[in-house]
Design brief:
By secondary structure, this protein is mainly alpha-helical. It has 13 helices and three strands. It folds into two domains: 15-102, DNA polymerase, domain 1; 129-313, hpI Integrase, Chain A.
């Protein structure tokens, strides 16, 4: 039968072999790369969608030409998937084929000339210095019930650490007492892919942390809690959802008309560092970004800030100047 896009229409696809290789790759990501369950699940679903597409085309997964992958991305676009999602599929399939190439299951790596799906960069939302000041000044005690003193100081410590260090909410939930170096003012954080990094924390957080640890010590005696830094009144570690609720509550109490998220505090941390003169490489290390290009999105935010400052303070922008 006549070829379409360079794909032989004979039934070359070895279903069992391809599926077993996908499963092998997923195990590699989980065990050797240390990726999270959610990330690994996304890779698996992406690859199975690609596998089914190749099966319908009756294509041999070992000898697919670059045009086939372009067609697949076009198929995803026709299916209504946005640029960001198509880019994720691109990364999933490319990673799988890199895995096959390194293990010499395929003789050529087919992704060299494939155009990466365009993804418009969305500027991150962040809080102004005045807004973050209101968030950090919230008094939870006035609105608390039982254990209001403990919850107030704990919640303030959580907010201070998020703003002081730019941690992801999952990283914050996993922080343990043993991760802190109180003499040098830094935390050892295990981030994405189980990569460990060192993140400094500020004086304000250190001060409130001392108060929190004193309050927590009293709870420890009652409930014999060990390990995790931030715990509930029942002595249990926080879930990401539990920490999210604290942030949402703080936003309500601060009367901020914004959809505050944990990631917004991370963006705020990075933006305020850049506005203060920190270099991108340092911010990259503190955020745990594997690529500097991920961190560069904050330069756009900084340029906006600089333009505002220029308009406000430069004499030539003043009608009377």
């Amino acid at each position: 039968m006549k070829e379409k896009n360079g794909i032989s229409k004979t039934a070359h696809l070895k279903k069992d072999e391809c599926e077993s290789l996908i499963e092998e790759y997923i195990s590699f990501l989980k065990i050797e790369r240390g990726l999270s369950i959610n990330t690994v699940s996304s890779y698996y679903l992406d690859l199975m969608k690609f596998y089914k597409y190749a099966a319908v085309e009756k294509a041999d997964f070992k000898t697919l030409p670059p045009m086939f992958f372009q067609d697949f991305l076009g198929y995803l676009a026709e299916d209504g998937l946005n640029g960001k999602t198509r880019a994720r599929f691109y990364s999933s399939v490319k990673g799988f084929y890199k895995f096959l190439f390194k293990r010499r299951i395929i003789s050529e790596f087919p992704f060299r000339d494939i155009e990466y799906p365009f993804v418009a960069k969305k500027l991150p939302d962040f809080l102004t210095k005045e807004e973050i000041k209101r968030i950090l000044s919230v008094d939870f005690k006035k609105h608390g019930k039982g254990g209001a003193d403990f919850e107030n100081i704990r919640n303030k410590a959580i907010l201070e650490l998020l703003y002081s260090s730019g941690l992801r909410i999952s990283e914050l939930a996993d922080i343990k007492l043993e991760n802190f170096n109180f003499d040098m003012n830094f935390i050892r954080v295990r981030g994405k892919g189980s990569k460990e990094r060192i993140v400094p924390f500020g004086i304000h957080f250190k001060d409130i942390l001392k108060l929190y640890l004193q309050a927590r010590q009293k709870l420890d005696k009652i409930k014999s809690v060990k390990g995790y830094l931030f715990i509930t009144l029942r002595g249990l570690p926080f879930t990401r959802q539990g920490l999210w609720k604290i942030i949402k509550r703080a936003a309500v109490l601060a009367k901020l008309d914004k959809n505050i998220t944990p990631h917004m505090l991370r963006h705020t941390f990075a933006t305020h560092l850049l506005e203060g003169g920190a270099d991108l490489r340092s911010i990259q290390q503190m955020l745990g970004h594997s690529s500097i290009s991920t961190t560069e999105i904050y330069t756009h935010t900084d340029i906006t800030h600089l333009k505002e400052q220029h308009i406000k303070f430069h004499p030539r922008n003043n009608a009377n100047g």
